[in-house]
Amino acid sequence: MDTQREIDATDELPQPPGAVLAAACSQALPIWAKQIDTARLQAQEAVVSLMQRFQNIINRLDTALGAARSQAGASTVADDAVQGQQLLAQVIEALRAIRSSRDALAHEIRGLAAYADELRKMSSDVEIIAFKTNMLALNAAIEAAHAGDVGKGFAVVAKEVRELSAAARDTGKSIGHKVGLISNSLAQIVSTNERVSTRDEAAVSESEQHIHTVLERFRQRTQLLTDSAARSNAESESIKDDVCEALVQLQFQDRTGQILQQVVASITQAQQLDSGANLESADQRVTDYLNGMAQTYTTDEQRQNHTGVASGELEPQGATFF
Amino acid sequence: MSDVRTAIAATERAAATARGGATSAMPAEGPQQYLTFVLGGEVFAIGILAIREILEYATPTQVPMMPAYLCGVINLRGAVVPVIDLSIRFGRAGSAVSKRTCIIIIEVASGEELQQMGLLVDAVNAVVEIAPGEIEPPPAFGTRIRTDFIHGMATVDSRFIILLNVGSLLAAEELGQLAEAAAPNSPSAAA
Amino acid sequence: MAKKVLIVDDSESVRMIARLALREQGYEVVEAANGVEALQKLEGDRVHLVVSDVNMPQMDGITLLKQIKASARHKFMPIIMLTTEAGQDKKDEGRAAGAKAWITKPFQPKVLIDAVAKLMPAGA
Q1: Which residue of A has its CA nearest to C114?
Q2: How many domains is chain B built from?
Q3: CATH no. for residue B156?
């Protein structure tokens, strides 16, 4: 109705109420249109630039997360630790094998000692045989003496036998002595071996303990590292999600841009209302203009604003499939 | 050793024929053979012709009511032979038996008969030859055994040895006692 | 080989959000600011699916939709409309022209990703 009055007022002096507003509007409209468009463009530019930065942040987070994932840094260290443990277990196994072969050797040596005992017995047997041979030879000598001259030759043989038996006795004694020496050596070897073996065993188990301690410490450090890496990753993921969410929120720019664009278009069009040949009545032209304006709306809230219904909160909706 | 004994027994018969029963040590010009043996760490010797044989030690059978120096009797091819511990006979402690302990079988004249008896010794050594000139009379003192047991002293391989007088080891009545000890157990001993 | 999606929207911010969302899913993304540019991109690139705005300068989304469906080569191209338009008459128009889905702005990237995954043709 106001518009109707403004149009009528232009033909008359003094100016009717609304004429000044109409005149001001006709001057101001193109300026408003430019101002609004400028604001729209500035907002668009700022939002796009903001989104660009957000995207950069996302890219960098992606790079960092990708690096963390591909290296899987801490877990590689953990794998190394496990591998190291296996290798060291092999070393310990080798040491045990050495020890067990030494035990086998000790067993053999004890076997030898048993042989030495047998040898000693044999040497004493030799001495007994020598003793008996000596007796035999002496008895032979006695018989020979009783035989007088007839026994002379036999006496020589008996003497030889006695000397042989003495030699056998000495040899037996000497064997016994040597065997004794060997036995002592063997006993010493066995005892040395056992001493070394005990020491080795202690060393092996000590090494084992050290290795376990070191590996356990290493594993704990690795765990800390892994945990902190995981925390850092989770943190990064969460930041990235936040930034993505922020980007989604910035969609309002698209919407406000469209609304402002439509306003600018309508303002520009409004300036044409009074120009050219106007066959229709002023009322008809205003109605046409408003109807035309409604045609260019692209959002529900524009339409709701147009009809005076309060626009509701915008909620993202799901997809409609056809 | 049983085969050894068999061998000795075989040679003994041959020898017995040769010597014709004469077994006492007889003085001669040439060197005589002696058997040396050990007793209580000292070396003694007996003329070899007084010896029948040497036996390995076997525990003698105890005989009751006999003097301490008599260890017991042994069975030598059917004959009962008394065994004397020379150590005790010499007035010392009894001999400890070792693996070298031997019994020397000797023959001594007992009246008209020859009496066999065993002497327990720590070990037998060897048969040595000693010329009569090398034998010195027994010292008046310094030995710890009765001098009438000793025939003389000699040096063999720079070692003093005591030559025993086998015939004087036991007095006649002592020998008789031994013969009695042997008699009831062995009828062949009387033959 | 990655599936290729053409995003047609005059708003750079909308293109950016769609691009981020789809690239994250392993799609290759090409972009056009209006219908005319979109048709040019379709000539050159082997595109598997189109996501298009409705209100755009030079050539709007419905016209683009009709032209794509009219071509022999892209007759079976799945097309998702992504627009501020929420009116049933617009949706009906899009459906009649051959659109497969309608997503109203503002949108959650997840909704777009799910729709693309659902409509992406299998095979090469």
Answers
A1: A319
A2: 1
A3: 2.40.50.180
